[in-house]
Write a structure and sequence with these properties.
The chain is an alpha/beta fold and about 450 residues long. The protein has 2 domains: about 190 residues, Rossmann fold; about 210 residues, Glycogen Phosphorylase B (Rossmann fold), CATH 3.40.50. It contains 18 helices and 14 strands. The strands form 2 sheets. A 7-stranded parallel beta sheet has the order 3-2-1-4-5-6-7, sandwiched between helices. A 7-stranded parallel beta sheet has the order 10-11-9-8-12-13-14, with helices on both faces. Helix 3 links the parallel strand 1 and strand 2. Helix 1 crosses helix 2, helix 1 crosses helix 7 and helix 11 packs across helix 16. The longest helix is centred in the first third of the chain and has 27 residues. It starts with a helix and ends with a helix.
Length: about 450
Amino acid sequence: MGLLLYNALLITAYPLYRIAALFHSGLRDFHRSRKEGFREFRRFRSTERKMLRLPGKNQPIVWLHASSAGELDQSMALAREIKKRRAVTIILSVFSRSVKKFPTETVDFAFYLPLDLPFTWNRLIRGLPIETFITSTWDVFPNLIGYLAARKTRCYLASAALPGDSSRLKRKWFFAPHYASLAGIGAVDETNQKRFQSIYSGPVKITGDTRFDTIFHKLEQARLPEEHKKRFQALLKPPAKTKSGKKRKKEQILILASTYNACDEMLFPVISEWLDRFHGWKVWIFPHHIHSQRVAELAQNLEKEELKGEVFIPDDGNPQIPVYDPSRSESRIVIMNCLGLLAHAYALAQFCYIGGAYHHRVHNTAEAAALGIPIITGPRIEASPIAVDLRQAGALFVAPSTRLLKEIMFRLSQETLFRKHQGKIGKKMLTSRKGASAQFCDAFDI
């Protein structure tokens, strides 16, 4: 019944989606990416089938799927582990347009996944020797998985996690059939093992979250973008003296990462008071979106609290916002309007705020924890098992109100030993969770 209704909803909604895509730019972009993904995969299939006729090219295909950027980290960890073990062709599909750039390392081919319509997959993937398909977290595409499983492809869900209030648990009659064709599920922990066992009758093993392997891999491989290297390093070397001639103390840094307007509304009134109290601190803001509209919104929200922010690099859409100059600027707030710097900033910061949890769900907390700094965020953390675990351990602090936000920020700023101790707890926890990719591959003989 669940699959019948799923397909009925898809087929009914598809014409409406096509019409809406004519008028809505976001949907139009999404539809264009699906068509391009379909065409690219057809070209890959044609090339691959020709190669398979050549001696020594008969490699099995492992297909990894990542719905969005967070799942992409999980898939890439598996890709690296699988490539270490055997010679395979790895293809990667992604669903969300939040993934703007496909990874080129380890993956042989990447594309945007078409919609899971029942008539899509026979046209697209018939004849390819796809040995294994692995998706992540909770996302499954019932028509795709059913088609692959019927052709003897082993299909798995890795790094499987569901929030306790997930609709998939509340409406098991609808969602349980979506998972039925899987050969196995690798859950992140015992709690999630039990949740998936309630909707899936096959093997559910605890194999951990492969995202942690990618986090440490990224940190080990992190390099400052050459075009921003000098400017970023200059941020760390302000003038030795203030304008008044006093010797400047070593500055400490608070990171505000993945911020939205909802974060600004909660944070900036407290930041205003906090900066008045703690003079040796600076704030580096990494908005979730770095386009000019969001940068302008940030600057306006700061002005409402009589705060002044300067951008790290010039913003063509906002030429009136000054660019931070470490040699002369006295501004204590820098808007980091470029990519590739956040991991380096975490390594220098004393503590951080991570956004998303005041209006939707918290963003990636693992990278900051791996670098040993305490985290503050909003109340919506249940969709992130690692955020929940970090909170229980004491490395992450939830601030549902302005009063609690101020309390936590002031304590972390004042109590150096407490701050360092809580940061070490998070780092120890993250380090203990490395190796999930190997555990998953061992558990299911990938």
